[in-house]
Design goal:
Layout lengths: L1 H6 L1 H38 L16 H11 L10 H17 L18 H9 L2 H11 L3 H32 L4 H6 L6 H4 L1 H14 L24 H26 L14 H22 L5 H30 L1
């Protein structure tokens, strides 16, 4: 193998490609592991109760690891009447796009898995594929409640994906590019959160709904349709659905940082701090706010959820695009 890598540059590039992919996967899994722990700690603090504090020492550092081991050892059941091939495939269909969207996200000016000209379009297109996995899981279970939960999840994800896309059009108009690196560079002097505050608010609300997190977690809420589309899943197959949700949390926090918070660009005169540190700080603030949302807001009803997406966020996003286009045409 070493002789082959040395003799053919294409093999060397392929080895580097897979090496970076494996490293990124390990980083994402580490984030998911300790992101869940951090979320439970923050929620415990905000709600005036203890978070995980027994397993793995005083801080509960191995609590999530213990949870993963429990899921690995749990019995994997497949309902007798389920469509077995689709039942097995659905969690993979839900998780794979969540990892694929990370490919084009620039974490610094020097670290990005793949820099393509339409990186934002790629993210939007690939992230939409997760809906197929969710609906497939509900359908393959051969359970009417799982099917209704899958259809409800699909309706929610599609409904909120439209205002999410509309909200980022203002950013695209200002940057003049769909390339995520170009969008970050366009914010070198001023971040788009200050120029496009309405777009940011719409984007953030729609992103929370896309993540199926509180207050938009109806597709998987225990009080709604016996936990929805994954009611028949157990063990590690169920964990794949949860893993997809937390990987998307990683991805949407990174995308928010890139689109609205200037990416790796520093604040004012603090340019002596490395760009990777700035990106990590902004990313962490976004994740904290997402956790804060989960602790603070009550769950919406299904009708309220759909009305907010179609009757409030979508018109506001369209109006923002119109105003942005007029201002750019008249003054720039």
């Amino acid at each position: 193998m070493e002789r082959l890598l040395n003799s053919d540059p294409s093999w060397t590039n392929l080895a580097v490609f897979f090496g970076l992919g494996a490293a990124l996967l390990l980083v994402v899994l580490a984030f998911v592991t300790y992101g869940i722990l951090a979320e439970r700690k923050v929620m415990g603090f905000m709600q005036g109760r203890y978070g995980p504090n027994q397993v793995g020492g005083r801080w509960g550092l191995l609590q999530t690891v213990a949870d993963v081991l429990k899921l690995l050892l749990k019995e994997d059941t497949i309902p007798k009447a389920a469509d077995r091939p689709l039942f097995i495939l659905a969690p993979i269909l839900a998780f794979a796009p969540a990892f694929m969207v990370l490919a084009t996200l620039p974490f610094t000016d020097a670290f990005q898995f793949a820099d393509i000209g339409v990186g934002l379009l790629y993210y939007i297109a690939v992230s939409g594929l997760t809906t197929i996995g969710v609906v497939t899981g509900g359908w393959a279970s051969n359970n009417k409640y799982a099917l209704i939960g899958g259809m409800r999840a699909a309706a929610q994800m599609i409904s909120y994906e439209i205002p999410l896309v509309m909200s980022v059009l203002g950013v695209v108009l200002l940057a003049g590019s769909l390339n995520l690196n170009d969008i970050v560079e366009a914010q070198k002097n001023v971040w788009y959160i200050f120029i496009q505050p309405i777009a940011f608010i719409v984007f953030f609300i729609a992103a929370v709904a896309e993540l199926n997190r509180t207050p938009f977690d109806l597709p998987e809420a225990e009080s709604e349709l016996v936990a929805g589309f994954h009611v028949e899943y157990s063990g590690f197959r169920w964990a794949f659905f949860m893993l997809a949700e937390y990987v998307y949390l990683f991805a949407i926090a990174a995308l928010t940082t890139v689109l609205f918070l200037g990416g790796w660009h520093p604040v004012m005169f603090f340019d002596f701090i490395p760009g990777a540190v700035w990106f990590a700080l902004k990313f962490s603030v976004v994740v904290f706010v997402l956790i804060w949302f989960r602790v603070t807001f009550p769950r919406l009803r299904a009708d309220q959820l759909m009305e907010l997406g179609w009757k409030v966020l979508l018109p506001v996003a369209l109006a923002n695009v119109l105003v942005t286009a007029l201002v750019k045409e008249l003054f720039f």
